[in-house]
């Protein structure tokens, strides 16, 4: 089936039995925001803010970031825009940041580890820009949410939260020239679940966050010890591996009965053959590259939650990737 044959739906969608699921898009640039709108995305589930920092000689100023975040929020006035704070390190390098030379950069100083360490000043500037944009954006019910990448301890989460509180209270007392009044409300706050540590700690993390967003690209890489993008270990690093499924299942179960909601922003979320499984697990938000939005919206509408839960029960019993694949095949109508 060609992409053209899938109708674009701008309204939010529900399963056949009436459970609404947010189908959002991932973005890194203003152009991506527009593509997301054109494909009927229900907001932005992952704004990869590091794109603002790449391919330039120095970091973007607070004013420049403010403008970009505010414009993203105003592009989706009725939807949530989740901005992920700087995720640098790993495979993403930036000249002006003086990153260390590491033998295993994916296991090194990356994501929140840098933001709470050598890049703390950048992190504070980014948070100021975000909080001000969230306060000033002219939106309907749309809201800013902030999430942090590569979490592996509770302290990282409490430290990042404390930093947000501090930045927010400084904005309140000092004000800023272009918007001197107005209390800054702290935005919805979440973490990426993309390390095995964060999946194991999910029950404890629910006390500290409003939401989880499962990043299957890194989660699969780290659970399976199989480098993402490395063709030699592609089958191993696949999200249909039972060990990856179990990490996801553990995370969603941890949030059950709490106020923490669970979404997904890794590649798995944009694969329509996974939609039924993810809904059956209990995810309520899926974020993906914009071009996948129409297909996944259709897949949501074709799903019945009770059938999806039966599929999950079967997949829980699967102990090999082949078993998972064949269960998924039989479920696809
Ligand atoms: C992920 O790891 O699944 C993810 C969505 O983040 P990124 O691909 O930017 O690392
Ligand atoms: Mg990631």
UniProtKB/TrEMBL annotation:
Coiled coil: none annotated. It is an enzyme of class 2 (transferase). The keyword Glycosyltransferase does not apply. One of its GO terms (biological process) is phosphoenolpyruvate-dependent sugar phosphotransferase system. The keyword Oxidoreductase does not apply. It catalyses: L-histidyl-[protein] + phosphoenolpyruvate = N(pros)-phospho-L-histidyl-[protein] + pyruvate. Keywords: Cytoplasm, Kinase, Magnesium, Metal-binding, Phosphotransferase system, Sugar transport, Transferase, Transport. Its EC number is 2.7.3.9. Its cofactor is Mg(2+). Belongs to the PEP-utilizing enzyme family. General (non sugar-specific) component of the phosphoenolpyruvate-dependent sugar phosphotransferase system (sugar PTS). This major carbohydrate active-transport system catalyzes the phosphorylation of incoming sugar substrates concomitantly with their translocation across the cell membrane. Enzyme I transfers the phosphoryl group from phosphoenolpyruvate (PEP) to the phosphoryl carrier protein (HPr). This is Phosphoenolpyruvate-protein phosphotransferase. The gene is ptsI. The chain holds residues 241 to 573 of 573 of the full protein.
């Amino acid at each position: 089936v060609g992409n053209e044959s899938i109708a674009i739906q701008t309204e939010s969608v529900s399963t056949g039995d009436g459970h609404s699921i947010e189908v959002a898009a991932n973005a890194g640039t203003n152009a991506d925001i527009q593509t997301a709108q054109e494909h009927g995305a229900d907001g932005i589930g992952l704004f990869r803010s590091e794109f603002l920092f790449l391919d330039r000689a120095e970091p973007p100023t607070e004013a420049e970031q403010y403008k970009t975040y505010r414009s993203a929020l105003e592009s989706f006035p009725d939807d949530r825009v989740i901005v992920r704070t700087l995720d640098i390190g790993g495979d993403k390098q930036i000249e002006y940041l003086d990153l260390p030379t590491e033998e295993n950069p994916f296991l090194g100083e990356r994501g929140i580890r840098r933001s709470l360490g050598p890049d703390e000043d950048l992190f504070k500037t980014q948070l100021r820009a975000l909080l001000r944009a969230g306060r000033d954006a002219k939106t309907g019910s749309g809201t800013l949410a902030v999430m942090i990448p590569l979490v592996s301890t509770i302290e990282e989460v409490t430290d990042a939260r404390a930093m947000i509180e501090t930045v927010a209270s400084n904005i309140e007392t000092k004000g800023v020239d272009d918007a001197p009044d107005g209390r800054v409300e702290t935005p919805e706050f979440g973490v990426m679940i993309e390390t095995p540590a964060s999946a194991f700690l999910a029950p404890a993390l629910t006390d500290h966050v409003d939401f989880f967003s499962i990043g299957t690209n890194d989660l699969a890489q780290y659970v399976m010890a199989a480098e993402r993008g490395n063709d030699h270990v592609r089958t191993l690093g696949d999200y249909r591996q039972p060990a990856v499924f179990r990490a996801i299942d553990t995370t969603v179960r941890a949030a059950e009965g709490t106020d923490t909601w669970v979404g997904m922003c890794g590649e798995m979320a944009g694969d329509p053959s996974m939609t039924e499984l993810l809904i059956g697990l209990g995810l309520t938000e899926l974020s993906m590259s914009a071009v996948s939005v129409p297909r996944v919206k259709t897949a949501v509408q074709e799903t019945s939650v009770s059938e999806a839960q039966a599929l999950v029960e079967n997949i829980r019993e699967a102990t090999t990737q082949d078993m998972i694949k064949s269960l998924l095949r039989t479920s696809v109508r």
